[in-house]
Write a structure and sequence with these properties.
Layout (H helix, E strand, L loop, with lengths): L6 H30 L6 H5 L9 H8 L1 H34 L4 H9 L6 H12 L2 E5 L4 E5 L2 H8 L14 H29 L3 H9 L4 H12 L1 H16 L3 H7 L15 H10 L3 H26 L6
Antiparallel strand pairs: 1-2
Helix pairs in contact: 1-14, 3-14, 4-8, 4-11, 4-13, 6-12, 8-11, 11-14, 13-14
Length: 314
């Protein structure tokens, strides 16, 4: 505890951080709440002297907007598909890495590389892998078409190429590409957290199970998963929070159109809806959508914590 006579020094040292938090965190939150409840709010109109009535009109416009429902559907679908898959894969990979001693550090570095790589750059690489590209070749301008790495692999095993992201592609194909990318991009952080949890488990539990002749599957289900449940709960909750904020991954693959050339906006998310409203100078509508997203994330997080209490062992 700091002596009462010396507390002013503590406040003095903390003042730069407190001021930055007030200016760049607290005030934007308060201002977002204010703009959300000012009907038809526009910053440019406010500068010009316009006044706005207090109400819930911005929220009604957001909910009634057809594209918002599509954005919500895309966001929820991506969360429901990617979080369980990425968590399960991360758990299996973490268990495998924990059992490898010789190359563990090197493999950890390889698996962690996507986490420190720019999301847009990764998205462009994935777009090239799934993209079908046509180019002119020869004196007669003959079009040579390349199906992309993924389609080449599919055709090598006897399958037919799929139009993943080009014009004329189906919605399910677009979602499949996004699920693969988001799962791959989410693995490094989850693997790191779960691997740290595995290494903190007391080896005596495994030694006792080995003496009793317990099978590996039973050890995994009865020892590893229960003792790792706090970390699993953490990565699941953060996974849902990150999933509801998906935006850059879709931009990285499909660009600012958020969908194939013939279906712009098909894969737009709730965060993308907020950015789109801001670009159109609808700050009130964007603030209302941001608050709706916040409430959804809050509800999902509370539900995860509520149901997690029954299965998490501390």
């Amino acid at each position: 505890m700091v002596d009462n006579k010396q507390q002013w020094k503590a406040w003095l040292y903390l003042s730069p951080a407190i001021i930055l938090l007030l200016v760049f965190t607290v005030w934007p939150i308060i201002n977002t709440l204010r703009m959300a409840f000012l009907e038809g709010y526009s910053a440019q109109a406010e500068v010009g002297g316009a006044t706005f009535e207090f109400g819930i009109g911005n929220f009604l416009k957001v909910i009634e907007y057809k594209k918002f429902l599509q954005c919500m559907q895309n966001t929820i679908l991506l969360c429901v598909l990617t979080v369980p898959i990425s968590t399960l894969l991360a758990l299996l990979i973490a268990v495998a890495l924990n059992s490898i001693k010789g190359l563990q550090k090197i493999l950890q570095t390889i698996f962690f590389l996507p986490y420190v790589t720019n999301s847009i750059a990764i998205g462009m690489v994935f777009a090239a892998m799934f993209n079908i590209v046509g180019s002119f070749h020869g004196t007669e301008n003959e079009i040579i078409q390349t199906a992309g790495i993924i389609n080449n692999v599919i055709e090598f095993f006897g399958g037919e190429r799929v139009n993943w992201i080009n014009a004329g592609s189906q919605y399910w194909a677009n979602i499949t590409v996004m699920v693969v990318y988001i799962v791959w991009n989410a693995l490094p952080f989850k693997i790191l957290v779960l691997l740290g949890g595995l290494q903190s488990i007391n080896a005596q539990y495994y030694d006792a199970a080995k003496v009793d002749g317990t099978s590996r599957s039973r050890v995994f289900a009865r020892i590893t998963v229960p003792l790792l449940s706090p970390m699993l709960a953490y990565v699941i909750i953060t996974g849902f929070i990150g999933g509801f904020k998906e935006y850059t991954s879709i931009v990285g693959i499909f660009g600012e159109t958020m969908g194939p050339p013939d279906a712009p906006g098909r894969l737009n998310t709730m965060v993308g809806f907020v950015y789109e409203a801001l670009e159109n100078k609808h700050q009130g509508r964007a603030s209302a959508a941001a608050l709706i997203l916040f409430v959804i994330i809050l509800i999902v997080t509370r539900l995860n914590m509520r149901f997690g209490k029954k299965s998490v062992y501390y």
